[in-house]
Amino acid sequence: MSHFFSKDGGRLASPSHTLFQRRFRKRPVLAVFAAAFVFASLHAVAAHEFKVGDLEIEHPWSREAPAGARVAGGYLVVNNAGSAPDRLVSASSEISAKTEVHEMAVKDGVMTMGQVDGGLEIPAGGSATLEPGGYHIMFIDLKHRPKKGETFPATLTFEKAGSVTVEFTVEGMGVKEGEGQHGNHGG
Q: Which of 85, 99, 160, 165 sees the fewest Cβ atoms within 10 Å?
């Protein structure tokens, strides 16, 4: 390692040592930025879970709607930490003229889909999963076609807990149950 000396014979720091000192002084700033980034990332994850009363709504998502589509589906999980059941009685969104809680089922070999009469029960201490091929939110007469990477708000109304506005994240068209960002969350 080479060293530099002043005119009076005193030793000065090497160029590499000076560079190290400059970088080291910047480390606290980098640490603050890194911590802020981690906090923001965790906040973004937590922000995709919503709470109202004893209910927690996890990871609302939708698939990208193809051009010309008039409907889109919404999926999520509702957990009930309470000691009494609750019901998802309605939903609304600015993305569609009408929004309904639907069920898709196969009866006598025929697939049927329609609005759930009386709402969807969320059992006490249990959960209800809204997923492709089962219960879901149906956005009817779309005003805006959901596109991958976008989000859109919807208000869910529960019999006991009341209303909560959630953000649906739009996934790609080809996403199937068990795939994509939310595959491990019941969607």
A: 165
